[in-house]
Amino acid sequence: MTAVDTTRTGLSTDKPLSIAILAMGGQGGGVLADWIVALAETEGFIAQSTSVPGVAQRTGATIYYIEMLPPKGGRLPVLSLMPTPGDVDIVLAAEFMEAGRSILRGLVTPDRTTLIASTHRAYAVVEKEQPGDGVGDPLTVVDATDVAAKRMIAFDMQALAETHGSVISSAMFGALAAANVLPFGKAAFENVIKAGGKGIEASLRTFVAAYERVREKPRDTVSKAAPKRFEALPATTGQAVLDALLVRIRTQFPETVHAMLFAGVKKLVDFQDPAYAGDYLDRVARLHQRDQAHGGPAKDHAFTLAAAKYLAVAMAYDDVIRVADLKVRASRFERVRQEVGVRPDQLLYTTEFMHPRMEEVIGTLPGGIGGWLEARPKLVAWLDGFVNRGRRVRTGTILWFSALYLVSALKPQRRKTLRHAREMAHLVGWLDQALETLPANYDLAVEVLGCRRLVKGYSDTHARGAAKFDRVLQALPMLVAREDGASWLRRLRQAALLDEEGIALDGALKTVASL
Question: pTM for this structure?
Answer without folding.
Answer: 0.63
